[in-house]
Amino acid sequence: MSIHLVGGGWDPEWTGPILRPFVAEGEARAAGAGRVVPRIGVALVGDDETLAELGPRWTTALKGAASCEPVVTGVAEGDRFSSSLFTDVDALLVGGGLTPAYLDAFTPLVDEVRLLVADGLPYLGFSAGAAIAAERAVIGGWRVDGVPVVADDAGEDLDEVTVAAGLALVDLTIDVHAAQWGTLSRLIAATEAGLVPGGLAIDESTVLVVGDGMLRVDGRGSVWQVEDSGDGVLVRTLGGDG
To answer: The domain spanning residue 183 has which CATH number?
Structure first.
């Protein structure tokens, strides 16, 4: 089973192809529990209006990708998920929105999520859900030491670039909406400032699949690798199948 990290974006041409392998992994896990149709847990954070929009959107997208039963759980910003999120689900999708709110909502469940994913529960993080999957998660901010490094509307309601302990499902720092929001520059600046040792920035409509000993990029765009070389920051693209 794998960890699927999506950089955001709602391009209908790519939504199905990106979701389909994830749902297929859920189907394989469901078979072990005697279910033919996998139950996909969908975790969302937002206000009532946002949840009313995103719940049906994810249900439609998942069912359009493959046969499955989405089980949507939404909580308000400032509230937290309970262990019931994992009851009888064969895969977990964590949606997008305000990244600090998503990380806070999972605070009581960090150890449980890690154990379940280590035990083979497929995980798909979309935008915020991808960012918080990291061990050292960039959860927002648009300035480093007061210097702008990305547009302020990409700051997630934070001023200084902020790094926090994430779910630690992957040991790479993840940023999202890379080409579309210009967040690659934030990851570069965070690496240069020593806030993180480097990481990956994922374009929209693009997924990085992390499995046993492998990384795979699928979708429309690229995944950008940022590394501290000791003499500066190196950037290269991992490419895609697009």
So the answer is: 3.40.50.880
Least confident of 83-92, 118-127, 231-240: 231-240
Tell me the two tokens of residue 165: 């302990």
Beta strands in 127-197 (DSSP E): 136-140, 143-144, 147-148, 162-165, 173-176
Asked, for residue 178, whether it belongs to a domain, the answer is yes
Domain span holding position 151: 3-237
Using only C-alpha atoms, the chain has a radius of gyration, in whole angstroms, of 17
Tell me, what's the pLDDT at 231? Answer: 84
Query: 186: closest CA among 177, 221, 128, 232?
Result: 177
pTM: 0.95
In a domain, 210, yes or no: yes
Residue 242 belongs to a domain: no
Q: Report if residue 30 sits inside a domain.
A: yes
Identify each DSSP E strand in the chain by its residue range.
Answer: 3-6, 39-45, 69-75, 91-94, 123-126, 136-140, 143-144, 147-148, 162-165, 173-176, 198-202, 206-211, 214-219, 223-228, 233-237
Q: Tell me how many domains the chain contains.
A: 1
pLDDT of residue 239: 60
Which has the higher per-residue pLDDT, 153 or 238? 153
Query: Cα 240 to the chain's mean position, in Å?
Result: 18
Note the pLDDT of residue 241.
47
